[in-house]
Amino acid sequence: MAVLLSDGSISEPPREEGPGLFRLAFRPFFLGGALFSVLAVLLWSSIVSGGTGLNVYGGGLWWHGHEMLFGFVAAIVVGFLLTAVQTWTGITGIKGRPLAALFLLWLCARLALVLPALVPLWLTISLDLLFLPLAAVLLSLPVIRIRQWRNIVFVPVLLAMAAANGASHVSVVRQDPALQAVAFNFMVMLVSLLITVVAGRVVPMFTANGTGTERVPPLPWLERLCLLSMLLAIPAAVWMPDSPAIASLALFFAAACHGLRVLRWRTWVTLATPLVWSLHLSYWALVLGLGLLGVSRLSDSVSLSQALHVLTVGGMGLMILAMISRVSLGHTGRTLQVGPVMVVAYLSLLAALILRVSGQWWLADYRDVIIGSALLWAVAYGLFFVRYLPILASPRPDGRPG
Fold first, then answer.
1. Which positions, given as ranges, span the membrane (predicted)?
2. CA-CA distance, 347 to 45, in Å (whole number)?
3. Which of 3, 132, 208, 312 lies at a 20 to 30 A Cα distance from 189?
4. Where in the sequence is the domain holding 356, given as residue range(s)?
């Protein structure tokens, strides 16, 4: 921000020099995470169709679940939080060589897991397990420095994600599919909890700013109830196998709380604003996913896989795509508007969600469901990568830091 000096002159902020990719954490992790997700789903579809005999770490099914959660989603979460902490605290975030080193750590883990024959087992596991705890430390330092305890909540969430990642590796070593399911489902619910917190803070504001309408004030009791219900939904979704009725009740309660929350945000006023309706649509997917998780505990009419993919493809995938497309524009000093390319990306991901969840009811070969939804995902995030590569890899047009 320009400052008026006592002599009447204007002091402009220093112009940042050098390449743009490692100026703030959102740049490499949004780009790298998006591109990696495209390659990962295409490789997964190739494994499912028998098009490749690549022997990935943990086997194809484990690798797919792990890399979409702890590879792709974790990269976006870390990029978002290590960028947001600068806004929260006013302290310059990680950038330059330290940021490049953190990104290289993430990238090396991805390569080691897809080519395990070339890397010692201990090194593969160490590379993957180090990323989230290191990100938690980097996030905590500026928050602790200015004692901004409101935002310290994200640190234990990252550490819980790191614990889930550790459990997923133990499941490979022990060949324990039950532990694998617990680890992956726990990660899904932790990300859902993170969405609950972040969306509650920003979606009403984004809705008001993007649509030119009055901001909906939060109801404190409802906000507390949404957080509490999600905390109760975590054990209901991950554990409690012997208490399906109680577990489903907790999940239905969470769905109702979050449904009321997003209903108050007035989705109908966003229909002309893709950057906003995409956020609302993803939150509705979160509501639907919680409800279907409850149904899956009581009936075989909806499988656990279907419910989880509503949360992962819809709640997470679309929320991430909507958020990174908006955050990337805002933090690079550009107008908060997207064109037809990103609208196609949002709709492609919506189509991927519909196909992945309902395709088994109307397609004879389940492999077609997986391959088709993977291709639609690849289109969505591939369009993001192509559209945002020049934005995220180049300096801000106004020369400001970030």
1. 29-48, 68-88, 100-123, 129-146, 153-172, 178-200, 221-239, 245-263, 275-295, 307-329, 341-363, 369-390
2. 20
3. 208
4. 17-201+218-392
pLDDT in tens, 55-101: 999 999 999 999 999 999 999 999 999 999 998 898 988 999 999 99
Q: Nearest CA to 32 among 136, 118, 102, 94? A: 102
212 lies in some domain: no
Query: What is 40-104 written as a DSSP string?
Result: HHHHHHHHHHT------TT-HHHHHHHIIIIIIIHHHHHHHHHHHHHHHH-SPPS-HHHHHHHHH
Give the total number of structural domains in the chain. Answer: 1
Q: What is the CATH number of the domain that holds 272?
A: 1.20.210.10
Cβ contact 215:96 at 8 Å: no
End-to-end CA distance of the chain: give it in Å, rounded: 13
Predicted confidence (pLDDT) per residue in 73-84, tens digit: 999 999 999 999
Q: Which amino acid type is present at position 229?
A: S
Q: CA 284, CA 132: separation in Å to the nearest integer? A: 28
List C-alpha distances in Å: 65 to 61, 159, 187, 305, 395. Answer: 6, 19, 10, 11, 34
pLDDT one-digit tens code per residue, 140-163 = 999 999 888 888 999 999 999 999
Q: Cα separation of 283 and 203, whole Å?
A: 10
Q: Is residue 207 part of a domain?
A: no
Complete DSSP assignment for 250-313: HHHHHHHHHHHHHHHT-GGGGTT-HHHHHHHHHHHHHHHHHHHHHHHHH-TTS-HHHHHHIIII
**Residue 2: both structure tokens together:** 């320009």
Q: Specify if 100 maps to a domain.
A: yes
Query: What are the tokens at 261?
Result: 């929350």
The b-or-e profile of 365-397 (16+ CB within 10 A means b, else e) is eeeebbbbbbbbbbbbbbbbbebbeebbeebbe
